[in-house]
Amino acid sequence: MPGFRTQFQGYAVRFSPFEDGKLAVATSQNYGIIGNGRQYVLQMGPGGITEWRSFDTADGLYDCVWSEENENILVSASGDGSIKVWDVAAPPQANPLRSFEEHTHEVYSLHWNQVRRDCFLSGSWDDTIKLWNVDAPGSLRTFAEHTYCVYAAQWNPVAADVFLSASGDCTVKVWDLRQPRPTLSLAAHRFEVLAADWCKYNDCVIATGSVDKSIKVWDVRMPERELATLLGHTYAVRRVLFSPHQETLVASCSYDMTVRLWDYAAPEDALLRIWDHHTEFAVGLDWSALVEGLLASCGWDEMTFAWHMNGDPRAS
Question: From the CB of residue 144, how many other CB atoms can be counted at a distance below 10 Å?
């Protein structure tokens, strides 16, 4: 279906876990350097993608995540260090429901716990990760072992207490809420690690994406050496995401303006598809958990697209 143009540059796109046609897009004015933000909620339909709701913020937004326990709750990560909680079914004057203001620099990453469903993580340029419950007055815990910006924090898809974090200190760390310190610190790349994700069918396997233009796949039980290296992006890899429906499929997006699809287990050529529908940095990416093969991306060209992995994002 045709893309949707947002007023500001796109930074993150997320499919609703409850409604297969609903998308959240976090955007920032002036490429996120200075200016306002807008949180969009978009609806996919026969005629394309249309705006259903939007919420304005004083600072740019870098990420967003849907609640896994309430279909109407949406959370945004802001450049001013705050985390905004929205009720998309409530009138504008009732929003935001909450504004958590503990991080001291930009909040760059959000991820909701899909096992316990009652808490979420935030990763920030203040080098920390925080654990939150939307009903608690403040954060439940702070994780402060990284020595540079945290770009991503992702819950394990099976183990409710385990998550990973990716950082500009070139490491990916694995954490367990029952332990005081990380259970693993992986020197994943020689340059900043901007993205990481868990395999949805084997929770010992993770993928990492870096400024070094590569994607690496690891088994956390054997961290000495990666299982696979996926080469092809010509600039930094901004997001890397395992398919929720096929074990070895990985999608990625990059500052090279492309979205790519990989099968890391393919012996010859792991690269399956390249999409070049963006005309600026491609920075937001998501798989639908409800519709197999459905992808969405957004970028600094102010465009958001949703398409099936066998199709063309620009086709109507």
Answer: 11
